[in-house]
Amino acid sequence: MKRLAKIELSLESKKKLAARHYNKSYPGEMVHFDTKRLPLLKSETKTLPRDYLFVGIDNFSRELYAAILPDKTLNSAATIWN
């Protein structure tokens, strides 16, 4: 029984490892996209509009695209890909 439990544990760990690693076939198949509102600096007042950081990572090539834009709209997000 102990041997069977060890085998089951090793099989489970192999399945988990295989599930974590995946490869995409072509660029743009999967892109991870995030936005973050940037904090104000100490010298800035709260009335100033905040900027947003847009980041996109292509899963196939691992290329990173980043831009700091003034608003969080669809048009701003689309400009990162042009």
3D structure, described in words:
This protein has 82 residues and is α+β, with helices and mostly antiparallel strands. The chain has a domain at 23-79. The chain is built from two helices and three strands. It has helices at residues 2-20, 74-79, and strands spanning 31-37, 52-58, 64-69. A three-stranded antiparallel β-sheet has the order 1-2-3, with no helix packed on it. The termini are far apart. 1% of the residues are buried.
- Count helical runs: 2
What ranges have pLDDT less than 50 throughout 5 or more consecutive residues?
none
- Structural class by SSE content: alpha+beta
Radius of gyration, CA atoms, in whole angstroms: 21 Å
Taken in chain order, the helices and strands follow as HEEEH
> How many beta-strand runs?
3
Strand content: 15-25%
Secondary structure: helix percent: 25-40%
Distance, first to last CA: 60 Å
Q: What does the main sheet amount to? A: 3 strands, antiparallel
Question: Widest sheet: strand order?
Answer: 1-2-3
**Average pLDDT score:** 83
- Label the overall shape: elongated
Task: Map the helices and strands.
Layout: H1 2-20, E1 31-37, E2 52-58, E3 64-69, H2 74-79
Antiparallel strand pairs: 1-2, 2-3
Sum this structure up briefly.
With 82 residues, the protein is an alpha+beta fold. It contains 2 helices and 3 strands. A 3-stranded antiparallel beta sheet has the order 1-2-3, with no helix packed on it.
What distinguishing features does this structure have?
82 residues; alpha+beta; 3-stranded antiparallel sheet; 2 helices; 30% helix; 24% strand
